[in-house]
Design brief:
By secondary structure, the chain is of the alpha+beta class. It has three domains: about 5-50, no CATH class; about 70-275, Alpha-Beta Complex (Sulfite Oxidase, Chain A, domain 2), CATH 3.90.420.10; about 295-415, Immunoglobulin-like. The chain has nine helices and 24 strands. The protein binds the ligand Nc1nc2c(c(=O)[nH]1)N[C@H]1C(S)=C(S)[C@@H](COP(=O)(O)O)O[C@H]1N2 and molybdenum atom (MO).
């Protein structure tokens, strides 16, 4: 909406300028004035029907005024960047805005030299080159990838911030159309020996990231992915090859994949023992909490937006579940006392993000907006209180509690979890 205002303003300003040019005696006619002003007019304010357009180019660019960026908080070797979810539309994340999480930077790997060793409890240990892998029957699937640290930074009851954007809160989430060969195809090729029940996946980055994944899972729907949204995987996403475990915590989707070892137990690598475990309320710890539970987030309105008027607004957001399809998203405009069903945008794909929308009439009073997702297993996204009861206050992974936004009388929107506790 502010955009339209700007456009009207600048058109008005532009007409005023051409009149001014005539009045100043620089030129005599309106046509001359238009020509003169058009030459000087800032980009985007010219009458596009009066100037020839730009030529074709080999690679496209975004409109100059549209420059969404990943959010990097502290650049470091072990670091992350977050997708600007509130600036995106639909479910697919443009590949250059896919979130990143690297434990030791982005390695440079040559496609032709990359090798994947598959060994362990297999009949025929084999080294695959990329040229070998791309010959196997290919599949493409639209699915989300989420770091299990998503949302963790704002969980603590004692220091609950309010000036939090969707990007900072949940930007360790992206959705792509992934293309590759099913892990099951490759494991059938090498022949899994009886008694095998896990795999170990290892990356060829400086972290040599290694994770154990149940054999049942990788046989079900994991991919050796080499494509992302119609192009080759980006270096940030694991070029030339990554493991992609749909619905599992992002860390298990090992990038720059160089080795799969078939085993009969989890390997208990550093990456799965030092992190990603959740302390529970009773003093025990939950390990290998691999599936990402159902979650939703309202992306509009959200901080730092300011609602200019009371009246009808479309609440918009994303919902997803690592267990399958989202079946329902509800929105509350009274802090969780009453709920209304939001509309889901089909097609609703399993283990993918889904857009939801809900018309809401803002009265102009203090309001707390919440969303809550349900998936096809019947699992309902918990409240923050329920999560605290189950996990205590010290956990920082798998934070899938309901997110809240507070709309103040001024129209200012802030992260509102603190209002609920
Ligand atoms: N080899 C390797 N694989 C990796 C990582 C890594 O640092 N090295 N980071 C993991 C983590 S913690 C996450 S959340 C996802 C992030 O994938 P992305 O950077 O493509 O978004 O990759 C996982 N795979
Ligand atoms: Mo992660």
């Amino acid at each position: 909406m502010p955009r339209e205002e700007d456009a009207k303003l600048s058109r008005r300003a532009w007409v005023a300028t051409t009149s001014g040019v005539i009045a100043a005696g620089l030129v005599k006619t309106q046509a001359d004035a238009i020509r003169l002003v058009a030459q000087e007019a800032p980009e985007g304010t010219q009458d596009p029907t009066r100037v020839p357009g730009r030529m074709v180019s080999e690679i496209g660019t975004r409109a100059p005024a549209e420059q969404p960026r990943r959010l990097i908080r502290a650049p470091a070797l072990s670091s992350s960047s977050r997708s600007p979810l509130a600036d995106l539309m639909g479910t697919i994340t443009p590949a250059d805005l896919h979130f990143e999480r690297h434990h030791a930077g982005i390695p440079e790997i040559a496609y032709d030299r990359h090798e994947l060793l598959v060994h362990g409890m297999v009949e025929r240990p084999t080294v695959f080159r990329m040229a070998d892998l791309v010959r196997f029957p290919q599949v493409s699937r639209i699915q989300f990838l989420e770091c299990s640290g998503n949302g963790g930074g704002v969980y603590n009851r004692e220091r609950m911030p309010t000036e939090v954007t969707v990007q900072r809160l949940d930007g360790l989430l992206s959705t792509s159309e992934w293309t590759g060969v099913p892990v099951a195809t490759i494991l059938r090729e090498v022949g899994v020996r009886p008694g095998a029940s896990w795999i170990l996946a290892e990356g060829s980055d400086a972290a040599v990231m290694s994770r154990s994944v149940p054999l049942d899972k990788v046989m079900d729907d994991s991919l050796l992915a080499y494509g992302q949204n119609g192009e080759r995987l980006r270096p940030e996403q694991g070029y030339p090859l990554r493991l992609f475990n749909p619905g599992y915590e992002g860390n298990t989707s090992v990038k720059w994949l160089r080795r799969i070892e078939v085993t009969d137990r989890p390997t208990h690598t550093r990456d799965e023992t030092s992190r990603y475990t959740d302390p529970l309320g009773d003093g025990t710890v939950r390990q290998f909490s691999l599936v990402m539970d159902a979650k939703s987030i309202i992306t509009f309105p959200s901080y730092p937006y300011v609602l200019p008027d009371r009246g009808w607004w479309e609440v918009r957001g994303l919902a997803w579940s690592g267990r399958g399809r989202i079946t329902r998203v509800e929105v509350s405009a009274d802090g969780g006392r009453s709920w209304a069903d939001a509309e889901l945008q089909g097609p609703i794909l399993p283990k993918s993000t889904v857009c939801f929308r809900h018309l809401f009439e803002w009265s102009g009073r203090d309001t707390i907006l919440l969303s809550r997702a349900t998936d096809e297993t019947g699992y309902v996204q918990p409240t923050v209180q329920q999560l605290w009861e189950a996990r205590g206050l010290r956990t920082s992974y798998h934070q899938n509690h309901q997110r809240a936004w507070k709309i103040a009388r001024t129209g200012e929107v802030t992260f509102g979890l603190g209002e609920l506790v």
